[in-house]
Amino acid sequence: MRIDRSGISRSVIPRARCAVLQWRLASTTAPHATTSNSSGEKPAEFYDIIIAGGGMVGTTLACSLAKNPRLSDRRILLLEAAAGFKQPSTETYSNRVSAISKGTHRLMRTVGAWEQIEATRVKPVLKMQVWDACSDALITFNYDDMADNISWIVENDVLLSSVYRQLEAVKNVEIRYSSKMEECGLIRDGAEKSTVRLSNGDRLQCELLVGADGYNSLVRRTMGVDNFTLAYDQMGVVATLKLSGAVANNVTAWQRFLPTGPVALLPLNDEMSSLVWSTSVAEAKRLLQLDDQSFVAALNEAFTKSYPRNNVIEDIMKNVNSLISSSTGQRLEAPPVVEAVIEKSRAAFPLGLGHTSTYVGQGVCLIGDAAHRVHPLAGQGVNLGFGDVQCLTDVLAEANYSGLGLNNMSQLVKYEQERLRHNVPIILTTHGLQRLYTTDFPPIVGLRSIGLTITNSLPPVKKFLMNYAMS
Question: How does DSSP assign 423-454, residue by residue?
């Protein structure tokens, strides 16, 4: 596999694959009958759809399918390896949050979970400021007069709990906790149904197996498709922070691009924010080992430290700013000062890129991190997964209504094609930004600073980017 100088594999964008096409053409449609086991084992229990993975994306898919009137006759099983879902704390914020896009907001309303989310905890974001630590370049995103939200900050536990509450009211979804999938089989080589074997020995069959089991997906590995991965040699440090004094209308998300990666503050309420700090593995480990006071000092320095400037770039940027200053009138605003980090809220996770060569096969499909993984700098990871949920629900509902079955390849390919059109540009853009902003090489700093500044001076372009990313 070749990777060009920017780090983007030429295999990231899926292309026609003879082996995959032969597998698809050789496969057959699964009937609803459950076959008995001639060896005397307990017969496999049949479900129309089995969803492997009870995280936010898999659970929301189960809820979305169950609440679609065109799929109400289908029996759905959700497999979750954990013993049960974690109830959100009523006293403290979780350190894992998501920036919910407008598309995800609509999906949560459709499945009935948004009212519960609002009743628990959610913070609207009306503005976002992004700026470069190696120059004076900046860009802001917001609607005119702050008339609309650009996103909502929701704790992952709150969102998951709210969706689970909705599942309690549906009759055609069964949830099996403590259910670790040991192996699965797909519809090929004469098999008529997809199969699943759990660690406790239970055998299951289904018409459609959905892999929502994360970036180490067993379902994807069983499909045997190529999966491009790229480790960034970075970790994302997360924490819950207390701000220095109440910030009136704390509705701005702040992100500064450091030479080591972006650091972001996401509002939780007027007094607290959530941190996502992408940096090298060694630095992330050092930050986790600091005492609370030293960590807060390092974080405030990350937002205010002056980095060496190149005189040529400074002169170029002065000329650029002098040409467009009359059209923007925007100046860098200082982010809030962090006063303290909430005890035991610091953690870190590895960062990387991943994309599978195909999302679907006969009787199987992938959603969420099982299909794609992105850097968190644009807050798009979970939103791409929720976009998969909405699209797959629509495709399966139409297929079922038309009598085509849930594993009809022409219908599943519609899901794949639609999601590729949206996901691939986001993945490539996010990867490009990660590469572009993790260097202080002067020519690159100059080019990115000019581009950011010019884009900030063009409101229609900014609005297009904002609407596309958060749709």
Answer: HHHHHHHHHHHHHHTS---HHHHHHHHHHHHH
pLDDT over 60 at 186, yes or no = yes
pLDDT the model gives residue 464: 80
- List b or e across 22-44, with b for residues whose CB sees 16 or more CB atoms inside 10 angstroms: ebbeebebbeeeeeeeeeeeeeb
Residue type, 58: G
* pLDDT above 70 as % of the chain: 89
The SS3 of residue 191 is coil
State how far the Cα of 150 lies from the Cα of 154, in Å rounded to an integer: 13
Residues 184, 44: Cα–Cα separation, whole Å? 13
The structure tokens listed for 282 are 């060694």
Per-residue pLDDT tens over the stretch 228-257:
999 999 999 999 999 997 777 799 999 999
Q: How far apart are CA 355 and CA 287, in angstroms?
A: 30
Collapsing DSSP states into helix, strand and coil, what is residue 267?
A: strand
Question: In 3-state terms, what secondary structure has residue 63?
Answer: helix
